[in-house]
Amino acid sequence: MDSEIIITSPPRSSPNILVTGTPGTGKTTTSELIALAAGLEKVTVGELVKERSLHDGYNEEFDTFWLNEDKVVDEMEDMLAGGGMCVDFHTCGMFPERWFDLVVVLRADTDKIYDRLEKRGYKQNKVQENIECEIMQVVLEEAQESYQPEIVMELASNTVEQMEANVEKVAAFVEEFRRTHTQ
User: Fold this and answer.
1) Can you tell me whether residue 7 is helix, strand or coil?
2) What's the distance, CA 30 to chain centroid?
3) Of 73, 120, 133, 146, which is the most exposed, with the fewest CB atoms less than 10 Å away?
4) pLDDT by residue (tens digit) across 111-142?
């Protein structure tokens, strides 16, 4: 008889939130503010990759590391098991669906993204690639394909006012999650 192994997460009293989007949409700032407002611990996957060598070398052309998805997932598994985490990363399909209770996809106008990436000193080919990704809705579509539709929240992130409103929405979700998941 074939048996199927089903991995389940233990019940969490505090949610895990993924904040994702094309580089330049405001993920880092928004996730920092969400973590502060909602009392979550913040994990920036890009920093984790660098600090713990969760990569397979460096891509000079795009000025970035070659991500080793297996190493990243293995490293983060225990981190997320108990809940209460706000994760910031520019992609989402590699993460197990069971990890997240809410996936926030930040979107921004391409002129905003362009300006933000230029200020960071991104190479022109990297700026162009990210602009094209935003136009083609790559991250949004990846989130919609990887997670249940009811947990994917698409939010505009062009202005400080939008960012503040986004933080309030997510903090309200966290509060409601805790209220309904407290034992």
Assistant:
1) coil
2) 10
3) 120
4) 999 999 999 999 999 999 999 999 999 999 99
Tokens 């986004």, residue located:
166
CA–CA distance, 36 with 125 (Å, rounded to integer)? 34
Judge contact between 168 and 118, C-beta under 8 A: no
Please state, in angstroms and rounded to a whole number, the distance separating the CA atoms of residues 41 and 167.
15
What's the pLDDT at 1? 46
In angstroms, rounded to a whole number, what is the distance separating the alpha carbons of residues 72 and 65?
Answer: 12
Contact 21, 103 (CB under 8 A): no
Instruction: Please check whether residue 133 is in contact with residue 139, taking contact to mean a CB–CB distance below 8 angstroms.
Output: yes
List residues bridging with 67 in a β-sheet. 55
CA distances from 122 to 35, 85, 130, 176 (A): 27, 29, 10, 39
Return the DSSP state at 61.
Answer: T
